[in-house]
C-alpha cells in the first residue's frame, strides 16, 4: 500500500510517499480502507521530531481516518466488513489502509461523507474528554476557547453551544473572529489586537469564565488565571508558547481554581473506549441530526501531505485540513 512516511525530523518536505506492507488486523482490531484522513497539529510536532508515536503505534503519521472496514479481528463482533467508520488511531492514518482498535471505530452518521467523518475523531475525543470530563463544563456556564478557528476550536465552539454553554473564543484576526461567531461563539476576541484577559473581564462584568480550554500556555498562563471565575477550571491541552510559567498560588487559593490538562494519544485503549462510548451516546445524535457539523477548510490528495502541513503551519486555515485517498 501507499503511505506517507517521515523520512527525517524536519520541515514539511520530509513527508514522502512510500510503499509499505499491508497491515494485518489483530484480535481486537479492524482494517480500514482509508477514504480520508485528518491532519492535526500534533502530526506537525511528530514530523518535527517533538512528539514520537507511543510504543506499539505505527511510525506513519495520522491520528484519524474514515473509510470502509475490509477485515476484522477474531474478537470483533459489533463491526462487519463493508461498514463505514471513522476511527481514532495512535498513528498510521496517512495511508491507503489503517488498523484501528475496533472499540475506537465509530459508525459514520448518514449525514456525513468520508471527508467530514475523517475530521471528527481527534478533535471530538480531545474536546469531549477535556472540556466536559476534565473541565466539567455545565449548561449556563461560560467557556473561553483559545484558538477558536482551528480544528480543536471549531469543535469546541459547536459542542459547548450544543450543550448550553456561553462561549468566548480568541482568534488571530477580525476575519477569524467573525468566523467563530458565525459558528456559534457568543463573542470573539482578536488576540493580536486586544488583551484577552481585559476583554474577558469586560464581557463577564468582571466575573470571569468558568472553564478555559487553552493550547497556548507560556505567557497566557497568568492571564488565564486572571480570566477565571471563582471555582474556575483551566484545562491545558498544548503549550505553543512554552511549558514554563510563574504561578501566583494566592489567586488559585482565593478563587479556588482547578488547573488540569491532558494529552490524548498516549492514553490507554480502555480510557479512549470510554470516551468513544460517551461520544456515541451524547454527540453522535447531534451529528446525525445536523445540529453540529465538522468544518472542512481544504482537502489534499494523500501524496500532497507536505502541502497540507504547510497550509496548517501558515495558520491561514479555519477548521480542518483533510487528506483524501
Ligand atoms: N492534548 C491533546 O490531547 C491534544 C489533541 C489534539 C490537539 N492538541 C493541541 O491543540 C492545538 C490545536 O490543534 P489543531 O489540530 O486544532 O490545530 P490548528 O487547527 O492548527 O489550530 C491551532 C490553533 O492555535 C491557535 N493559536 C496559536 N497561537 C495562539 C495564541 N497566541 N492565542 C490564541 N490562539 C492561538 C491558532 O489560532 P490563530 O490561527 O487564530 O492564530 C489556531 O486556531 C494544538 O496546539 C495541538 O497540539 C492537543
TrEMBL record:
Q: Which UniProt keywords apply?
A: NADP, Oxidoreductase
**The Enoyl reductase (ER) domain, residue ranges:** 10-323
Task: Please provide, alphabetically and separated by semicolons, the GO molecular function terms listed in this UniProt record.
Answer: NADPH binding; oxidoreductase activity, acting on NAD(P)H; zinc ion binding
Classification via Pfam families:
ADH_N, ADH_zinc_N
Name assigned to this protein: NAD(P)H-quinone oxidoreductase
Which species does this protein come from? Answer: Methylomarinum roseum
